[in-house]
Amino acid sequence: MTIAPPDPRLTGLVTENTQLIGGEWVPAASGQTIEVLDPATGETLLHVPRGNASDVDAAVSAAAAAFPKWRDTSPTFRAGLLMRWAELIDKHEQEIDRLEISEVGRPHWGPLPMSRMLTYFAGQADKVHGLSLPTHTPDVLGLTLREPYGVVGGIIPWNAPGPNFVMDVGPAIAAGNTIVIKPAEDAPLTPLALARLAMQAGIPPGVINVVTGYGPEAGAAIPAHPGISRMSFTGSPATGSAVMAACARNHTPLHLELGGKSPQVLLDDADVDAAIPQLTRGITHNSGQICAAGSRLVVDRKIHAEVVRKLREAFARVRVGPGTEQVDMGPLISAKQHQRVLGYLKVGREEGAELVTGGGVPAGEKFERGFFVEPTIFDQVRPDMRIAQEEIFGPVLSVLPVDGDEEALEVANGTEYGLVASVWTSDIGRAVRMVRGLQAGQVAVNQWLSGGVIGAPFGGYRGSGFGRTMGADSVLSYTQVKTVSIRGTR
Ligand code: ADP
């Protein structure tokens, strides 16, 4: 089956050269635009406004104007609007999916998670509780209120624009904040479509504002704006540092979701056949362009040869092509990322790693126009090599053989990152020790990622950032605590 390549204009959910400010679909104040490309062909999909600081300023003003009424709206009513938004996303799921396929280049990968995420946040909206506090004397009442911050800001990346948009907007507005959010310049269409559905759901104008544009222009203007009272950023470590520095100037709290170099640890008693499909998917899903990609395989030397042989076979079965075809892996997002990943393939060879499979651009006419690379395995990677330490953000797996559990743990923890980790073993005692020892915000046993878990908190240890999205306190994290004391005077 081939999914018809959508013309984004025909979905009715995105229109040429518009962003959302104060409920209006407007071009950039400068009138300038950015081309959004189809990464499978390099062709233009649509233009979006090239917003800058003046667009951000207008969006912050609109969000500030909408805030008092939204804050004072019954949280049960806010929850209802989020549910309505979720229903509309379900209704338009195919169009949204096609938009994301068009701009990211990924294949269809099953039901979209956005409506489920919104349902989860909606459920939390009217469960934002403060505390009653003990007092020294009975004539005083002490309590805490949890209040929204006001106008919050968000900057999201291009790799999963739909989920990333909802992950920031959902909890922020559920808690009563209003938001100014900037999608990535490479993939802004899905966020714009989702924002349109939010408006149709009845979320009031100004509650969600989407400014499109480049990072150093529109992006940098958000944390720099004094009207922003909480930030969230998902993206590269270097940009995260810049956003955090801008936040420091205004004392704006933030959370950062940065990169990863996530280990899949295979102990010598692992169920290898169960692991192989997930190890493969862990690095080829979205062409390796997810921060949680399982990019390092830390494998006990006793099973190393068998694992690498089976992985090579599994990688050979990965179908590569445009996301609109029935494939397992699409292109990379852009020429820039293509160059970057091809650069790492060269680095791996120069560092002396053994190329097992892949290592370049797939052969064939259809791969010439888009930004394709082959799924690649490097074996005999040493922990000090760049391909063992640096986030490649492509379908490149580094295999690091180790002797025993202790060395496995040391190597697994031996990068600056700590986003997710997996351990594969048949022994519960070894699993528990690894779970305790692995330095990551999410640890999975005998699977890649927290599949099957509802509302799993997501975020990093160490260089992968701080703060969590999803989770029982995702809406609470968009509130601040006010202590109230009341003394009865007679
Ligand atoms: P990548 O290099 O993979 O695009 P980035 O961290 O640069 O990763 O991009 C993530 C998001 O951050 C995008 O929306 C991008 O536009 C934005 N961005 C890039 N540079 C800046 C910056 N200096 N300030 C704020 N946002 C930025």
Strand order within the widest sheet? 14-15-16-13-12-17-18
Summed over residues and divided by their number, the pLDDT gives a mean of 96
User: What is the count of β-strands?
Assistant: 20
What's the number of helices?
14
CATH class category label of the largest domain? Alpha Beta
Which regions contain 5 or more consecutive residues with pLDDT less than 50? none
Separation, N- and C-terminal Cα atoms: 77 Å
Task: Quickly give the structural class.
Answer: alpha/beta
Please tell me the CATH architecture of the largest domain by its name: 3-Layer(aba) Sandwich
Please give the domain count: 2
Describe the oligomeric state of these chains in a short phrase. Answer: single chain
CATH superfamily of the largest domain: Aldehyde Dehydrogenase, Chain A, domain 1
Q: Which term fits the overall shape?
A: globular
The bound ligands are:
adenosine-5'-diphosphate
CATH topology call of the largest domain? Aldehyde Dehydrogenase, Chain A, domain 1
The main β sheet shows up as: 7 strands, mixed
Rg is: 23 Å
Helix content: 25-40%
